[in-house]
Amino acid sequence: MLNAGRTLKEALVNAHADGRVTVGVYECAKIMNDDPDSVAFCVLATDDAFQCDVALQIHFTLIQAFCFDNDISIVRVSDTQRLAEIVGDKSGDLEDAHCVLITNPAEGSWEDPALEKLHLFCEESCRLNDWVPEITLPER
């Protein structure tokens, strides 16, 4: 059985080490607009402030629609701070870790098995009508 949280963390750590992570709603939207084919995976993170932030909710809706239209696997996590710790610096101090993209590896380079497992997890979730599955990230 797939531990989706651990697998997501592994994929994020691998992509971060390779310089294939983009953090921030606007930064991610720019990449999606400029080069949608380069996007391999999308993570949306919510926190307590999300419920009160209508602009962020609209951004999430647009990002989700874009991902569906472009066959980009997408998941949600409910711990923005933990996501920031994984893809940011040691303090986890990222202003906008609400959206994180993993871009495709360079042509001919090694494929990430964790990312492949996540794609299969997302495909299976869609078959069960869970269009944006929620994953719990593991603690340190």
The biggest sheet amounts to:
4 strands, mixed
**Low-confidence stretches at least 5 residues in length (pLDDT < 50)?**
none
Overall outline: globular
Average residue pLDDT: 88
Q: Strand arrangement, largest sheet?
A: 1-4-2-3
Strand content: 5-15%
Number of strands: 4
Percent helix, as a range, is 40-55%
Which H/E pattern describes the elements? HEHEHEHEH
Radius of gyration: 14 Å
What's the helix count? Answer: 5
Cα separation of the termini: 21 Å
Overall structural class, as computed from helix and strand content, comes to alpha+beta
Question: What do you see in this structure?
Answer:
There is one protein chain. This protein is of the alpha+beta class. The chain has 5 helices and 4 strands. The chain has a 4-stranded mixed sheet with strand order 1-4-2-3, sandwiched between helices.
Features of the shown structure:
140 residues; alpha+beta; four-stranded mixed beta sheet; 5 helices
